[in-house]
Amino acid sequence: MSLYSDKVMDHFQHPRNVGKMEDADGIGEVGNAVCGDIMRMYIKVRDGIITDVSFITFGCGSAIASSSMATEMIKGMPIEKALELSNKAVAEALDGLPAHKLHCSVLAEEAVRAAVKDYYDKHDIAYDPVIFGCDVACAHEHDHTPTEE
Amino acid sequence: MYVYADNAATTSLSPRALEAMMPYFSEVYGNASSLHTPGQRAAEALQRARETVAKAINADFKEVYFTGGGSEADNQAILSGAALGARKGKKHIVSTAFEHHAVLHTLDKLKKQGFEITLLDVHENGVVTAQDVARAIREDTALVTVMFVNNEIGTIQPIGEIGAVCRERGVLFHTDAVQAVGHVPVDVKALNVDMLSMAAHKFHGPKGVGALYARKGVPLVNVIEGGQQERGKRGGTENIPGIVGMAAALEEAVANMDRDSAYVTALREKLIEGLLQIPHSRLNGDREKRVPGTVNFCFEGIEGESLLLLLDARGIAASSGSACTSGSLDPSHVLLALGLPHEIAHGSLRLSFDAQMTEQGIDHIIRSVPEVVSYLREMSPVWDELERGQTPHLI
């Protein structure tokens, strides 16, 4: 199908890092079943580095591909760096998404941030709440321009 | 193996229709309005096609108007009914919540022009009743428009009973029969239908051609102004190859209908039984009151577009009413009209086929769908919550 780039189809058909993680340090879930997509992201953190990451996603081809790409992008990254992951970067890494599917990359960005926030909260790590200024559960209601921090 | 199971979207062109069309692209290229011999040969072909189409629905050839497809026929029928009603001060139209957008969007347009629209509930089984229609008809009802067969779930509406109610109450009755003609018997006289829309490409005719049946005495308004083509009701030089192809395809579909229906219904029943083995699945729409070859399922915990893409990769062409395939955030209005919650409607699958489907094709679908559904459920957080009892199963 030509709706999606080859990269999207590759990540959709062969998703990387898919599956639940039993001993995750942080879990973030964003989206809404009513809207048709939910992403759950699991991270494992050692010395401030995301050493492992996995996801499960309910959603369309681009939602699954965006999740998969986001996990590849943040694996091995320092946490602060992962927080800079933008939806635009995810979409670009996938060689673009159709305009009406861009919200899937937004969801991927939000899922990463939600997982990090959960990690911080669970481990009593202090953070500036401003970095999570937007409620991660509200992905659909906002016009998300990529966050340039 | 590639199995095409999306006939409700469109069908392949019948070889017989293609053969019938070929001369009208090349040798017989005249304009049917011209007086010279090439033009008159085109006019003769047009007339033969009109008679063939009329015969297939038990109409008179003068009651058949060729259009650029089913949507145009729907637009013209509804706008005509509305115009006629408005002249008598009647500005109320009765329809159903799960009509095709060619109908619903035309009704939206009329609403902005001051018409009042009643969209009937289609119940959990996707079948509106004649009693529902009778109750909705008022003194100022100009038109009733109810689809013959729903395009997404395949349920057949009681058109004959609704036609009888409308005739008795003196209300004009249109049916969008795009998914019915060529698939189930259609007799406009017996059904008391005043106007009926059809599209050639739904019964192995070419795309871009359809017809509107309008009973003698029903005045049509033009959607396309122009010359005297189609008794002055549809301007534009006739698409002779398309019209000839439509007639040939319809004649063939009607001739084979009895034999094909039995065969396709048997395949459909096998498919329904096979796919309902999947836990937490449901068949959408009445089990019995449906066309032979259209079925629609919901599978809890998964999303339709990813299901379609994975089925395509396994050689199965199907369709879905998920939001992602509809291009909006909302899933199919048809599934929502059945009362399904959004999260269930997102996980829908429509399979539609006819006598070209083979037993092997159905077996391939019955093998593949459960595998793909399980795979997607494995990676679905919605399914995870359902299975862990955090949210209750809805189906």
Protein model, in words:
- The complex is a heterodimer of chains A (149) and B (395).
- Chain A is an alpha+beta fold and 149 residues long.
- Chain A has one domain (6-141): Sufe protein. Chain: A (Alpha-Beta Complex), CATH 3.90.1010.10.
- Chain A has helices at residues 6-13, 61-74, 79-82, 87-93, 102-122; strands at 26-32, 37-46, 49-58.
- In chain A, strands 1-2-3 form a 3-stranded antiparallel beta sheet.
- The longest helix of chain A is centred in the last third of the chain and has 21 residues, at 102-122.
- Residues 136-149 of chain A have low confidence and may be disordered.
- By secondary structure, chain B is of the alpha/beta class.
- Chain B folds into 2 domains: 15-255, Aspartate Aminotransferase, domain 2; 257-387, Aspartate Aminotransferase, domain 1.
- In chain B, helix 2 runs parallel beside helix 7 (240-255).
- The model of chain B has no long low-confidence stretch (mean pLDDT 96).
- The A-B interface holds A 1, 9, 12-13, 15, 18-20, 29, 33-40, 55-64, 100-101, 140 and B 301-306, 309-310, 312-313, 322-325, 327, 329, 331, 341-343, 346, 378-384.
Keywords for this entry:
heterodimer, A: 149 residues, alpha+beta, Sufe protein. Chain: A, 3-stranded antiparallel β-sheet, globular, B: 395 residues, alpha/beta, Aspartate Aminotransferase, domain 2, Aspartate Aminotransferase, domain 1, 13% strand
